[in-house]
């Protein structure tokens, strides 16, 4: 019986540590503004079909707006899919939007030693997409340089995570 308690304690500690670690990368994933419990720590990709759909949405020209703008998918058919609601919540409520938040994330990713969870990988790639789209809208050279530096750091984190260990 003692072995079961030790196993249960170990699993509880492991789950708590892994969730605490994810909170540091994307703390807003645990504070969804819309208030539904089912939306805590939302993720879009659960199957290969979801991955293909996200790729199709990105190729269709999805735009992730800033703090005051919504996500825009130009293809009306793709935009009307019910499953896109979670992607919208992730893009609007979870992803960091300010340069300081993105720099904090990039610094955390630089120190991150283990492979990213699939939720954090998804969010990092979407943050990289948002950062690249933001760079394209900027005209101030100094702002572009700061955002470009953040984008490069995010890219390096994704690249590091994709390399075999």
From TrEMBL:
Pfam families: FAM180
Position of the signal peptide: 1-18
Keyword Signal recorded: yes
Keywords annotated in UniProt: Signal
Record carries keyword Signal: yes
InterPro entries: FAM180 (IPR029170)
UniProt name for this protein: Protein FAM180A
Native source organism of the sequence: Channa argus
């Amino acid at each position: 019986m003692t072995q079961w308690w030790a196993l249960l304690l170990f699993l509880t500690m492991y789950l708590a540590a892994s969730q605490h670690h994810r909170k540091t990368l994307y703390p807003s994933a645990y504070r969804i503004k819309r208030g539904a419990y089912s939306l805590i720590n939302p993720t879009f990709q659960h199957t290969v079909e979801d991955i293909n759909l996200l790729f199709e949405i990105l190729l269709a020209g999805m735009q992730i707006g800033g703090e005051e703008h919504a996500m825009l998918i130009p293809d009306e058919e793709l935009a009307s899919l019910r499953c896109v609601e979670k992607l919208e919540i992730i893009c609007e409520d979870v992803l960091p939007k300010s340069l300081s938040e993105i720099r904090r994330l990039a610094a955390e990713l630089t120190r991150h030693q283990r492979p990213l969870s699939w939720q954090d990988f998804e969010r990092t790639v979407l943050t990289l997409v948002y950062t690249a789209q933001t760079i394209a809208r900027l005209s101030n050279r100094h702002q572009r340089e700061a955002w470009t530096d953040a984008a490069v750091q995010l890219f390096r984190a994704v690249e590091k995570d994709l390399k075999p260990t």
